[in-house]
Amino acid sequence: AEDTGVRVELAEEDNGRKSTIALRLWVEDPKKLKGKPKDNGAIEFTFDLEKETPEDVAQEMVESGFFHESDVKIVGKSIRDRVALIQWRRSRIR
Amino acid sequence: SLNAQVVHSAGRRFIVSPVPESRLREP
Questions:
Q1: pLDDT at site B20
Q2: Parallel, antiparallel, or unpaired for β B13-17 and B5-7?
Q3: Average pLDDT, stretch B10-18?
Q4: Consecutive sets of 10 residues in chain A, 94 residues long: mean pLDDT of each?
Q5: What's chain B's average pLDDT?
Q6: b vs e for B1-27, b when ≥16 Cβ sit within 10 Å of the residue's Cβ?
Q7: How close B14 comes to chain A (CA, Å)?
Q8: Chain B 3-22, CB below 8 Å of chain A: which residues?
Q9: Which of the pair, A58 or B19, is modelled with greater confidence?
Q10: A91 φ, ψ to 5°?
């Protein structure tokens, strides 16, 4: 996955069965972002693999003031990369 | 605003907590 400067990880162990997972996102390299992120903390959130898209979450984070509008794509991509990896691991385990 | 919670109008809860020291990249 491309190094976007935004790190996304599982916030808790993935049992491979629940459609909703917990993720944690934080900025590792602020220089990669166009806008100044609001916080330098880690943002934990739940994500429904079946019903939601990474872009939904990225837009909500912008609307909640965590990121500047100009960074919605890079935040969305960072989440998408991690979600794709989780889904790939699940398919491999199945 | 660390350890803060923000609930988006769509209902999603964002919980902000400090990034674990071990996860911060070396400058």
A1: 73
A2: antiparallel
A3: 91
A4: 90 93 94 85 95 96 95 97 96 88
A5: 79
A6: eeeeebebeeebebbbbebeeeeeeee
A7: 5
A8: 3, 6, 8-10, 12-20
A9: A58
A10: -65, -35
Question: Rounded to whole angstroms, how far apart are CA atoms A26 and A17?
Answer: 26
Burial bucket for residue A80 (CB in 10 Å: 0-12, 13-18, 19+): middle
Question: Which pair of structure tokens corresponds to residue B12?
Answer: 């999603």
If you search the block for the tokens 């837009």, which residue do you land on? A59
Whole-number Å distance between alpha carbons of A23 and A6: 13
| Single-letter amino acid code for the residue at A37 | P
Helix (H, G, I), strand (E, B) or coil at A8: strand
Q: B-chain residues within 8 Å CB-CB of A61?
A: 14
